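Input structure tokens:
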């Protein structure tokens, strides 16, 4: 039985039926998923029952995987998951929720800002694949914004203004917006800014999109206050409700999104409840802009 996809968001996002992701992915279904991503940018799979090795196998069936090492404040001794997984839960190595003042939890609150995964890496991510092992009683939705539709809706002058601009991205900037400013020298070196293009053209469809993120803190050649206002103004425009799909998580949901063409953010939830979310990530094809140390 072939998979089917129906649109569930206002201008993007699709719900997939007819596939068990615990089983090996056939070339035909892999092709159908990539085609679905080209059209919808976000795909939702309900009722999946996956072990870590099955999620990893599914991810690798779609392309080369990105390592998650060095992207959070979890020490190696604190890791719950293999290095091919990004642990975006609120749980420590003993599967207990972080204390409300835990430094790791406070850093992770930055995920509630609109962002694109790994835009702070020289080669940013392609797809993110997030699986829900446990969900909370209220809150915790993930919202997605379609950067293709947002770009299309810009007026001609603003499109011209955006063309060719290069932004600098760093997790230090995104966290500083929330008052998280104390970083070690090692963390500052690990999170040093990288350059990304503000406008991207998708390699399969050629469609242009904005490449925005809370990690973007400057525009090359612009005064910082002007750059930050310009980027904030673009984010406000691009996250209007007409461009946003909000996903309410259910146990066993798996969601794939294209970081090249969407932004997303997590919504607040009770900090004392366990929210076990496990992300695998496909590596992007190349840097979006020339990287200068």
């Amino acid at each position: 039985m072939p998979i089917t996809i129906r649109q569930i968001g206002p201008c993007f996002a699709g719900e997939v039926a007819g596939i068990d992701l615990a089983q090996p992915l056939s070339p035909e279904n892999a092709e159908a998923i990539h085609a679905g991503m080209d059209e919808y940018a976000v795909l939702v799979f309900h009722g999946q029952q996956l072990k870590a090795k099955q999620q990893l196998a599914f991810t690798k069936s779609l392309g080369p995987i990105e390592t998650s090492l060095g992207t959070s404040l979890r020490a190696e001794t604190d890791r719950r998951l293999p290095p091919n997984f990004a642990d975006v839960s609120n749980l420590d190595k003993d599967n207990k929720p972080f204390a409300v003042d835990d430094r790791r939890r406070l850093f992770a609150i930055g995920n509630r800002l609109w962002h694109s995964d790994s835009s702070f890496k020289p080669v940013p991510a392609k797809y993110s694949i997030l699986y829900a092992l446990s969900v909370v009683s209220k809150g915790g939705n993930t919202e997605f914004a379609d950067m293709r539709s947002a770009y299309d809706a810009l007026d001609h002058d603003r499109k011209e203004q955006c063309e060719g601009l290069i932004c600098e991205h760093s997790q230090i900037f995104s966290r500083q917006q929330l008052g998280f400013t104390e970083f070690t020298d090692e963390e500052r070196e690990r999170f040093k800014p990288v350059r990304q293009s503000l406008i991207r053209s998708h390699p399969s469809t050629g469609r242009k999109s904005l490449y925005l993120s809370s990690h973007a803190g400057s525009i090359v050649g612009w005064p910082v206050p002007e750059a930050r206002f310009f980027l904030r103004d673009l984010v406000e425009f691009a996250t209007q409700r007409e461009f946003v799909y909000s996903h309410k998580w259910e146990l066993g949901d798996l969601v794939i999104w294209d970081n090249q063409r969407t932004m997303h953010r997590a919504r607040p939830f009770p900090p004392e409840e366990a929210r076990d979310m496990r992300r695998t990530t496909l590596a992007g094809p190349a840097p979006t802009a020339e990287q200068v140390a």
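Residues 224-238 form the longest helix (15 residues). The chain has a mean pLDDT of 95.
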